[in-house]
Design a protein that fits this description.
The protein is of the alpha+beta class. Helices cover about 25% and strands about 25% of the residues. The chain is globular, with a radius of gyration of 21 Å. The two termini are about 40 Å apart.
């Protein structure tokens, strides 16, 4: 699933291309892409038609569009976009060849199309009511999602306090979107390497300065990734123009098992964690087990 930098790149592209545009029609060609919209494809198409895009919004890894009604009043629902593992939001000119896996197509008033392309069909669109949470309007489906480190209202000290209250591995906490959103497997590994902290260390055993450093490095690595369009390991993650990101070239540990650590030269280790892979430097990031045995 794309993480914060990749979703933010898409959000910025949607803002540039869609703001003020009116939806003239919506066509759904694969039911799985609207399976979360219980009322079905016809209901979604009818409710979106005639609305104008007000903004593209994001919290953590989650993306949504807000709208204005034909009379100019704000719509009370938002279009939540689940990118899943392979979802793409492409803005295509009129007459552009339709992609094989383009399962939703929204025609805009300037003739262009917003297309949801999803090879694996894990993603989709759903209309959700907007609710006020901590003085912020959010789709109700996302009311439980915490602020992310790039959010101007993100409270580092409050998150540090919450982390210190948990006798849970720090990496598991970083991946918990109800604690801190936007961080996935890639940027958790990179932030922990930059902080010289192993992911299996219990959050409660880490000092406040160390936890502050972990959050600061998570923010820094995601900003670095955002500057080059995010991380693209294959052709499935692209921005609204179909272009890939280049941060893969700058990853220090993720996906670099059995290659030298850029900092100390020790071989990066790949370990199983939560049905996925974790990467770390055994010298720079001693694990909790190593630290215990050493003492």
């Amino acid at each position: 699933m794309p993480e914060l930098p990749e979703v933010e790149v898409v959000r910025r592209g949607l803002t540039e291309h869609l703001s003020g545009r009116t939806v003239e029609s919506v066509t759904v060609t694969h039911p799985r892409s609207v399976r979360r919209h219980i009322a079905g494809a016809a209901d979604m198409a009818a409710r979106l038609t005639g609305l104008s895009v007000a903004a593209a919004e994001r919290r953590g890894k989650y993306l949504w569009l807000t709208f204005l009604e034909p009379g100019g009043d704000p719509a009370d629902s938002a279009l939540v976009v689940h990118l899943g593992m392979s979802g793409q939001m492409l803005v295509q000119p009129a007459g552009a060849p339709v992609e094989k896996h383009a399962h939703i197509r929204a025609t805009l008033d300037d003739g262009r199309e917003l297309r949801f392309v999803d090879q694996r069909t894990f993603g989709g669109w759903v209309l959700a009511p907007l609710v006020m949470v901590d003085e912020t309007l959010l789709p109700d489906l996302l009311a439980h999602i915490a602020r992310d480190p790039l959010d101007p209202w993100f409270d580092d000290e409050a998150v540090v306090t919450r982390l210190r209250a948990k006798r849970t591995e720090i990496k598991r906490m970083l991946l918990d979107q109800t604690v801190v959103s936007g961080i996935g497997n890639i940027y958790a590994d990179e932030a922990l390497w930059r902080s010289e902290v192993h992911g299996n260390r219990l959050a409660a055993t880490l000092t406040r300065p160390v936890l502050r450093r972990v959050l600061a490095e998570a923010r820094a690595v995601m900003r670095d990734a955002l500057a080059v369009g995010g991380t693209s390991f294959d052709a499935l993650y692209v921005d609204v123009n179909g272009e890939s990101g280049y941060f893969e070239r700058e990853l220090a540990v993720y996906g670099r098992g059995d290659r030298p650590c850029p900092r100390c030269g020790a071989m990066i280790v790949r370990e199983k964690f939560m049905n996925r892979s974790s990467y770390s430097c055994p010298r720079c990031q001693p694990s909790a087990r190593r630290r215990k045995s050493a003492s």
